[in-house]
């Protein structure tokens, strides 16, 4: 077999609960405005985006709120604040779509994955999502259990 080329793509943080709590709509890839110590801390892979969300301000900018990027252990007095608001870099058309979706009832901007792309740049995958009701969450759980059981039965049959 041919060897796969070595890719620099590295997932730093994944928000797995988002797919359970929200119905995911359109997804976008956004850049982040970060300081040097934040990038170094991200490369160690210890950040979390589970409790974070994105918000549109009056100036037409989107900000990532409550994402935890811990302080860099070798950073001295120039270290960053772990839970500061971080600006997201998107095209104007994408910002307009997201702000219109948030203006509608029940829609929110949810971060799904924080990663480094092939060029080594930190990117955030965000989605326009709608919160699920309790019965929708139960249905998702039933479907996931049934798929797991189905694959188990197929393995036994072979």
Automatic annotation (TrEMBL):
Does the record's keyword annotation contain RNA-binding? Answer: yes
* Location of the region described as Disordered in the Swiss-Prot/TrEMBL record: 130-158
Q: Spell out the Basic and acidic residues composition-biased ranges.
A: 133-158
Q: Which Gene3D superfamilies match?
A: 2.40.280.10
Query: Could you tell me the superkingdom of the organism this chain comes from?
Result: Bacteria
List localization entries. Cytoplasm
Return one GO MF term. Answer: RNA binding
Function of the molecule: Required for rescue of stalled ribosomes mediated by trans-translation. Binds to transfer-messenger RNA (tmRNA), required for stable association of tmRNA with ribosomes. tmRNA and SmpB together mimic tRNA shape, replacing the anticodon stem-loop with SmpB. tmRNA is encoded by the ssrA gene; the 2 termini fold to resemble tRNA(Ala) and it encodes a 'tag peptide', a short internal open reading frame. During trans-translation Ala-aminoacylated tmRNA acts like a tRNA, entering the A-site of stalled ribosomes, displacing the stalled mRNA.
Q: What is this protein called?
A: SsrA-binding protein
Source species of the chain: Rhodoblastus acidophilus
